Amino acid sequence: xxxxxxxxxxxxxxxxxxxxxxxxxxxxxxxxxxxxxxxxxxxxxxxxxxxxxxxxxxxxxxxxxxxxxxxxxxxxxxxxxxxxxxxxxxxxxxxxxxxxxxxxxxxxxxxxxxxxxxxxxxxxxxxxxxxxxxxxxxxxxxxxxxxxxxxxxxxxxxxxxxxxxxxxxxxxxxxxxxxxxxxxxxxxxxxxxxxxxxxxxxxxxxxxxxxxxxxxxxxxxxxxxxxxxxxxxxxxxxxxxxxxxxxxxxxxxxxxxxxxxxxxxxxxxxxxxxxxxxxxxxxxxxxx
Length: 288
Known about the structure:
This protein is α+β, with helices and mostly antiparallel strands and 288 residues long. The chain folds into 3 domains: 7-74 and 125-146, Ribosomal Protein S5, domain 2 (2-Layer Sandwich), CATH 3.30.230; 78-118; 149-284, Up-down Bundle (Butyryl-CoA Dehydrogenase, subunit A, domain 3), CATH 1.20.140. The chain has 8 helices and 6 strands; from the N terminus they run βββαββααβααααα. The strands form 2 sheets. Strands 1-2-4-3 form a 4-stranded mixed sheet, with helices on one face. It has a two-stranded antiparallel ribbon with strand order 5-6. Helix 7 runs antiparallel to helix 8.
């Protein structure tokens, strides 16, 4: 399986007093970079969540968002915070000892005081088990989106590999004729330029130059690199870095083919190869 580094998943679960929501997303990156944007009530779960993510994701700039939202279904159980009430009573006593004419707090004032009313809360153990279970579900969906996109990218790359093989196959038969034509043109120019050179010396000079412009080796290496590219894609897994290296090698051979070519057809094929390589490189940058 080939995985893209771009993925997204969003899930939530009703826990009664609150709704737990998680959002996972990632983009391409050289390494695995995990960032959290979660509420304080979930901050204690950052380390186990990081371990869970790292076990399923190999590379990418990863962001995890999450938190608890008040549940809109069912009645909300409210209870006074006895510790806060005790503090308010003590504060009122101190104030009225200094300002005896100050009005005492009434029930409405007390209930509006921040922190006096507390809603039903979840036990930390319950919250941890629910959050990790929901994160596992989110990761399944997240990895599935990366796999679907990776499959599409692999198909696009293989289409260009097929086209590059066609270009290599087309250029190979052109090579002997192109070399023969070029040797003849070069020999004619040498005879015209230097009338004193004998035929043997001309053949030697032409032979040396023909060796320098022979692109058979480049065509052979292009075929080998394309075979390796197909093998890596079929093997699957974390292939991005290996494929990026192969793109460098393919581009090097295509550049050499273009610079050494003495045929307009071979030059055209080399230029199209470079375009295909660049298109493949853009897709590979997003593969894990």
